[in-house]
Structure formats: structure tokens, C-alpha cells
Amino acid sequence: MDQAKIKRELAALAAEGMPEPEPVEETVEVEAVPEEQADAKPKKKGKEKAEPRLNGLIETPYDERGAHVDVQLNPDQVVRAAEILDSEGMTLEAVTGVDWLKEKQMEAVYDYTYTGGELFRVVIRARADRDQPDFPTISNVFGGANWHERETWDLLGINFTGHPQLERLLLPEDADFHPLRKDYKP
Amino acid sequence: MTLLAESQLHETFELNLGPQHPATHGVLRVKLTMDGEYIVKAEPVLGYIHRMHEKMGENRTWAQFMANVGRMDYLSAMSFNHGYVALVERAMGIEVPERAEYLRVITVELNRIQSHLLWWGAFVLDLGGFSPLLYAFDDREQILDLLETVTGSRLTYSYFRFGGLYNDIDENFVDGTRAFLKRLRSRIPMYHDLVTYNIILMKRLIDVGPISAEMCRKYGATGPVLRGSGVDFDIRKNEPYSVYPEFDFDVPVYHECDCMARYMVRMDEMEQSMRIIEQALDKLPDGPVKAKKVPKLIKPPVGDYYHAVEAARGTFSIRVVSNKTNKPYRMKLRSPTFSNLSLFEEASEGMLLADALALMGSLDLVIPEIDR
Lengths: 186, 372
Prior knowledge:
The complex is a heterodimer of chains A (186) and B (372). Chain A is 22% helix and 23% strand. By secondary structure, chain A is an alpha/beta fold. Chain A is globular. Chain A starts with a helix and ends in a 25-residue tail after the last strand. In chain B, the strands form 3 sheets. Chain B has a 3-stranded antiparallel sheet. In chain B, strands 6-7-8 form a 3-stranded antiparallel sheet. A two-stranded antiparallel sheet of chain B has the order 4-5.
């Protein structure tokens, strides 16, 4: 595992996705504001992250955040990111999602770590339109993503295209709702 | 006749294991496609005791959620609590007094021993040996009594607080723990003599249920499953938290990748946990057990936080998204057995059903933690 190489390749990947005229997701951004400085900007309400974030790689302070590198990509790039991390021997620890109701976006978050000795945690995140949250599956790269993605679809309704078995995992088969969505009413 | 026998060879049938089955240790259903005694496909079906802890996390204050974490895994509730308080302390920047961290380590390691003891008894029970379970419960009961005296509960503890502990220990706990360690030290060799070196157990476990290190990596398996596949990875060493760096202990690693390797990892881990507890009791510093400056209102700054701990079954980690209110915006609970079980489908392919049950037992499943 080569930390510098991973950072370099992920940063290049994020930069690659930038100039493309994206249909919906990332065009609204005005400027890159790292999460940590987000508070400096005046914000309307404390409900969401203050500013939308640009694609790119941020090195986060491990002691405060629990991760070393935080990369935002376009949804169609997460498979390439998984392949980069897989070739360096990283492990997928979890896949999860966040519903940003106010921004009308759905975020998928992938947590990678390294089990070979060195401590290195990488977070990959991507945002898609909330009405059509499509992300390509990475279960072809990491078999363990199969269940994690199924669970995320089950609870949040994030659609992982190409997934071999996108069925209910934790909820009953006949459930027709996604309980972790912020507009879910029991 | 031979023609008939051959045509029947590849005839498969469906078999349901569970949701109520002694070998699944809870309500786990496994949909098996069998070719005679051999497994063609084994698909675990989850969710029978799904409680949606993640949604509950969004609807409770940070302090209220404390009780939920321990209820995810009733066998290593201390580790789960430790992960949660450590996360909030990281997000809020709370300093924890040293004595509190030492006591956390002592109780977590006691909890780990009792989890492994119960696993040991239940695992051998799966394989057909009944008596070891009674021995394991005998020892385990003593740990539960000890923990009950300080925490007030036997399984689902809420002993930790943000910035410290609920209360201090007394002399009786220290003496009781030392007496228990002395007793367990004399009993583990007996367990090895009676059970581990038993020829029947060895034949059931050695070279059965291989899980390669590569498969562990692809599926994100951690804990004793990973260490039984020859990977030296333990969050306590690789991503040190609390006061673990101050103790001298080894991470048991076995390279055989079979059920016996995972069995031995857990047996050795009990040994190592005892070493940690002894050192912690010897070095236990004086002082307060609760930090002085803990804000009454817990409202972590906006952003993502992540914290992982080594629970009895592997890496337990929490990712929270905070929006600086008194409730988390999103809470993801990553439980170790969820990932460990996900490799079962691939690992059990082509195995005998009886061997697959040994493999399933060696994964140490705790269903409430998978279903959350």
C-alpha cells in the first residue's frame, strides 16, 4: 500500500470529473470550501452542511475526524476509485448513504481502510440527485459491498445500478418504504 | 441402475436452516440449496430482529443513544459503548481522565473474555459436545457478577459516560477480578486438555472451512476471522485508541485459515486479555473518573466523524454526520459480524452441511448485531 500513490491517483480522478458538464449533480457549486472551514460562511439554518463541496481530495486531520483522506467524486467514478484502492490492497469497511433533504441530494459514502499494518483510512463520497439516486455498484470489485449496498438501498433507497441482487435485506420483503429517508413518515 | 443414480446426482433441493435453529444462535435463516449432503448455495436471510437502531439514533439525543449501542451486541456491549463514547469524545474534543480509561480497558477486556467464553461453549455445543458449555457458563457467570457490582447490569451496560465513567470501582472489584483471573488461568489449560486436543474436535475443525486472507479483504472481514487467516490486524494495535498502547500484549495470529485457527485465536485472545487486565490493575492510577469540563449539551461541530474499536468479533465502527444540533443527522453503525457473515455464501460452497455449521459457528455470530 502506497499512500502517496493512492492520494495522487484519487486526486487525479477527482480532477478528471471536474470540467465535465454534469447533468444535475455538481454544477451548482461555486467554490471549494473544505468541511472544516464551512462554519466561517454565514448559513441559514444548522440543518445541512453550510456550503456545497467541490469534487476533490481533502486531507482531514485524523485525530478530529477519524479519517486521513476524504475524496468527493462524481457518482460514475466510484467504481474506478474502488479499483484504485483494491489494487493497493485496501479493504472496504462499509458503504452508507446520507439523505440531504434540503439540498435535494443523496450521498453515498464508502469507507476504506488498510488491514496490512499501516493506518490509513480513506473516505470516498459522491452525490446524486435525490429523485434519481443512481450509483454504479462496486460489488464486482469488493464482494463485501454486495450486502452493504443492499442495506443502503433497503434503508435509503439509493439505487446501485448493476447490483446482482438489489432486494430487501433487513426490512420485510413487502416493505414499500425507505425508513432512513428524512421525509419518511411512519 | 447406474443411469438412475447418475441422474439423481445433480438433483438439488432447497433446505431451510432456521430462522429458529440451535446452530444459528438467534433468528438467522439460511436458505440452502443442497446436492445431497453438499451445499450448492447457502444464502443467509437477515432481518428477523431488525430494530432500526440507525433511525433511533437520528431521533434521540447523543446521550440518550448510549443505551442503544449496548443493545446491538449483547455479548460485547462494553466494546460497543466504548466505541460510541470515544466517537463523541473525538467529536467534542473531550479529554478523559487516565483512571477512567484504565477502568474502561479493564471492563472491556473482562467483557471480551466472557464473550469468547460463551462462544467457546456454544461452538463446542454446535459440534455436539454439551458439557463444555456448562464449564464456560460457570466462568462467565463470575465475570457477569463482577461487572454487575460496578455497572449495575449484567449484559447491556451503560457504564461509560462522555468524558468518563458512571462511578468508580471499589476494592472488592479489584480483589474479585484478581481472584477470577487466577481461577481462569488454571482452567484454560484444562479446557485445552479436555476439548482442544480432543481428537473428535480436531477432526471436525482442522482443514475445515478455509477462509483465505484475500477473501477476508474482499469482504471486509475482521477480528478473529481475519487473524485466523494469517493477517496481523487488531484495531487495538493498528489504530490505537484509549490507553491500549501502554500495555504489553500480543495479537494472536494463525496462518492455517481453517476453523481450528479461528478457534485458537479466540482461546489465545482470552490469555492476552487477562494479561491486559493484570497490567491495568497493577498500573491503575488514582484520580477522578469523570472529566470536569464536559458540556451539558452535546452538540458536536458540523461534519463527519468516524471511530473504530476492536469488539470481541472484530471492527465496530460508527460514522456520524453532525449538524450541530442535539441529535445526530445520520448515524451509521458498522457491525463486525455483518461483514464476517457476508463471506459465508462464498466460503461454504461445496461444503458438507455439517462442516458448514462448524464454519458458521467459527464466525461467532451474534444476530442482534447483524440485524441492528
